[in-house]
User: Fold this.
Amino acid sequence: MNLPALTSGLLERRYKRFLADILLVDGTQITAHCPNTGAMTGCATPGSRCYYSLSDNPNRKYAATLELVETDQGLVSVNTNRANALVGEALRANRIQEISPCADVRAEVKIPQGNGRFDFFATSKGTPIYIEVKSVTLHQGLGIGAFPDAVSVRALKHLQALMQVVADGARGVLIFCAQHQGIRQVRAASEIDAEYAAGLQRAIQAGVEVYAYGCSMNLKTIVLDEPLPLLET
Assistant:
């Protein structure tokens, strides 16, 4: 995936969930949209080098969007919207080996029984597959990434919905997309959200397939890369 043109600055603060103040090289300050609902632990340290894109949409209140942040462990894509785009790109190119070959890839598909939507639907060898994607940016040392970085009722509901489609005869798939250069393995953050961690184990036991993938990234491109180990909590 090609990134939009990026400009660097220093992250001064992230606040009100969706805002970030960035100090530019000429000493001016701008406020950027921060497309991330999580805590961004370790990815929003004041003084960190960061990179933002600019929109030419005149209706936007904030033209800048915070995209990447440099950490001691490498670049992090803090734009959680990119996780879905990366997985969608990989699905259509049959680069997710556990689902390949797949066809009829569609985004934002209604959950068959319940409210809300799954990130993707696909078919493989005639079997329907419902796919949910979660962006992982919390680095806990030793290459370990954890999800979630804050309590997430929504993520738990998605697990329950995936269990239901499996019970109904389809495949339910959860993909952790590690948008952090330093993450080489993924685990459920039971110390942050014990209910989600327990729910993930129930989902696996019920037949939900759970995979983790890393990303290769630089200031111009991000690509869903190799599969990563999923650690038990």
